[in-house]
What does this fold into?
Amino acid sequence: MQQIDKIFLIYPPSTQAAIVSHALACVPPLGIAYLGSFLKNNYEIKLLDSTTEGNRNIKNLGNDLLKIGLPEEEIVKRISDYSPNVVGITCLSSSQMPFIRKICQLTKEINPKIITIIGGTHPSFLPKETLGEKSIDFIILGEGEETLQSLLKRLESEQDFTDLDGIAFRRDSQVQVNPKTRYIKNLDDLPFPAWELLPMERYSAFNIPMSIYCKSRYWAPIITSRGCTAKCTFCSSTTFWGNHYRARSPNYVLDEIELLIKEYKIKEIQFLDDNLILDKERAQEIFQGIIDRKLNIFWNTPNGIAPWKLDEDLLKLMKSSGCYELTLAIESGDQEVLSKIIRKPLNLKQVESVTKIIQKLKIRTHAFFIVGFPGETKEQIYRTFSFARKLRLTSAWFFIATPLPGSELYDMFKNKGCLKEGFDFETINYNKLNFETSDFTSQELVTVLAREAFTFNLSVLFRNPILFFQRYILFLITNPLLSIKLLIYSGISVIKIFFLRRSF
It folds into this structure.
C-alpha cells in the first residue's frame, strides 16, 4: 500500500495588472479551505495561502503585470519542511499556471514520490495542455471534494483509479480525461471551510477584501450556493459547477455566520455567490434569519448580484439584515449587446428602476461593466459609459471583454479569427485588449476605457464627497503605505490618460 497521511494544500501566488496593484485582494481561499475540511478527519492537513502570506512581495513580470506572493522557492521549502505525501494546488486564474508549474517541478526535485494534484478553472478546462507538464500527476476537474477523496483512497490502496469520474492523468504517455458528471447533491453534507487552518488574523490586518473597501476590517467571505442558471457568454463559472444550481440550506448558512462571529469576531460578511438570490425564498430566509438571530452584521455582494431578481420588498429585508452595498452585475448599457452578445437575462429599464429603489434605501450601489465584445460597436460602448453615469452609482468597475478558458466568449473570439497572434491564457492582461477588430484598435479602447473610468469615479467625489472618503478611510488606516502608492500612481495615471490620443 502507498502511504498517504499528510497533505499540503496551496493557494499559489497571484498576478495583478499594475494599474490596480495597490488593491490586490487578500481573501481566504475557500477552495482549499473546503477541501481541507472535507479531508481533515482522515489525513493531516496543512493549508498555505501564499498570496496573502507574501502580499508585500511584489515582482514585475512585464506586460504591465505584477506577481504578488511568496517566491516558489520559499513555498517548496515549506513543502520540504512539512514532508507531505500529496501536494494539491488550486489554480483560480490562468496567470497562476507558470507559478504552479515551477512549484511542481521543484517539489519533484525534492522528492519525486510526492503526488502533485492540480484543480481549479484553468486545469479543469485545459487538462491536456496542463498535463503537458510532467511534474503534474493528476488534475481534479471542477468540484473537487468527493473526487479528491476517492482518488486518495484508491492511491492509498493501490486500486485502479482510471475509471474515476472527473479526473485527468497520463496513461502510457497519453493524457486520459474522464469528464466530470457527478456533483454533490446536498451541499449541507459539506463541513464548513477549515477556517482554523488559515491565517485569519492576516486578513483583518491587511484588510483588502474582494470588494477592496468595507465597513469593518473583521470580515469573512461566504459562498452559500454553487452555480447559476444564467448563461452569460463571458462566464465559465456556470460550466465549472456542472451547469446547474445547488444551494446550502438557510439554517446551515446562518450557523456558519454565527461560528465566524463567535470564533473570529467577524462583523462583516461578503457573499461571493454567483447568484445569491436566484432562489428568492431561500434568500429571504437567510436575511430574515440574520435579523431573528440578532447577528448584527454588515454585508455586501462583491462578486455581483442579479438585478433582475431584486424587488422593493426583498431590498427592504436586505437592508434590515445589514446590507450596506450591492454590486450590480450589469455588464452593458446597450440592450442589444446584453441580449444578443452577452445573452444576459437583464432589461436595462428594470435596472434603472431597481437602482433607484436601492439608492432610496441608502444602500451603496457598485456595478460591473464590460466593453469590447466581438461585434460591439463604438456607439454601443459609449452607451455603456453613458448608462453608468445616468445611474449615479456610488462606484463602478469597467473591464475589457476577455476570453476565459471554458467560456463561450473564447469560442466566439476564436471562430471570428480575431484573437491576437500568440494569444496565451497564461500571460493575458485583463486590462488590455487580447483581440483585433475592425471596429476599433486595441490602443483606442484601452485609452477610452481608462479615461471614462477615471472620469466616472471622479464624479462620485463631487456628487458625494463624504461617502467617497468614507469608502477609503478604513483602507487608508489599515494600509497607509499602499495608500501612498495608490496616490502616487493615480496622479501619474491622470497625467497619462489626459495626454493620450482622444479619438475613438
